[in-house]
Amino acid sequence: MIGHLRGRLQYRSTDHILIDVQGVGYIVYCSERTLATLPGPGATVALFTDLVVREDLMQLFGFPSLIEKEWHRLLMSVQGIGAKASLSILGALGADGVGRAIAMGDWKSVTVAKGVGQKTAQRVVLDLKDKAPGVMAMGGTVVEAVEGPAPVAEADPAPVAPQAAPPVSVMSAQADALSALSNLGYSPGDAAGAVAEAAGAAPEAGEADLIRAALKLLAPKG
Predict the structure, then answer these.
(1) CB 3.0 to 4.6 Å from 16: which of 3, 29, 157, 181, for a disulfide?
(2) Coiled-coil ranges per the record (predicted)?
(3) CA–CA gap between residue 187 and residue 174 (Å, rounded)
(4) What does the pLDDT read at residue 24?
(5) Into how many domains does the chain fold?
(6) Is residue 143 pLDDT above 80, yes or no?
(7) What is the C-alpha separation between 159 and 33, in angstroms, rounded?
(8) What do you get for the CA distance between the two ends of the chain, in Å?
(9) What is the pTM of this model?
């Protein structure tokens, strides 16, 4: 299993890159969001990878963080979601957005991804709701590309403008808040939904503020 690659970026296409690792070239498929954040040819890049092996095909998929890699693996476990659809969802929402959509049952956000219809989006939210808290609790372990030579200008710009991932401290606060609520006896699904909603309202909130806001959301109504 190839779980991580670091090497020199030699080529970038619309859906994959070629990484030279000590003389061996690896073709790695990435989401549009990930491609948009990578430097130009000649620079050093580092990605977590997932190797998919089928009877007549072997493909590597690359991700900037462990949490995004885990979402990819879970998304592909859903009926009707293959690697292409998974990358489309991650490219449209990002790892943080996928977690929030699933935790809050917001299947409409998932339909933003190209090629994902209503029924498939609903199946994603339903099938992964109970698994979302475990992935969200991983926090934001991000792999940053090592600085290399200045990027080379390319004729075709990346199709999607990069969006910054939440800081590790923010993701850690959300994971800690989720753990605290679980320790208080709330179900993983309810806790994840409340934390996701609280974080959506206050993206930079710390652990204590997230817990207070989530507890208000979880309080009995009426």
Answers:
(1) 29
(2) none
(3) 16
(4) 93
(5) 3
(6) no
(7) 9
(8) 53
(9) 0.67
Burial string for 4-27 (b: 16+ CB within 10 Å, else e) reads: ebebbbeebeeebbbbeeeeeebe
Segments forming the whole domain that contains residue 181: 168-216
**Predicted confidence (pLDDT) per residue in 14-70, tens digit:** 999 999 999 999 999 999 999 999 998 999 999 999 988 887 888 999 999 888 999
Pairwise CA distance, residues 196 & 202, whole Å = 10
Q: Which residue has better confidence, 219 or 10? A: 10
Q: Which residue among 96, 118, 136 closes a domain?
A: 136
Give the tens place of pLDDT for each residue, 184-219.
777 777 777 788 788 878 877 887 888 888 888 888
CATH label of the domain that carries residue 57: 2.40.50.140
Q: Where does residue 87 fall: left (phi above 0), alpha (psi -120 to 50 degrees), or beta otherwise?
A: alpha
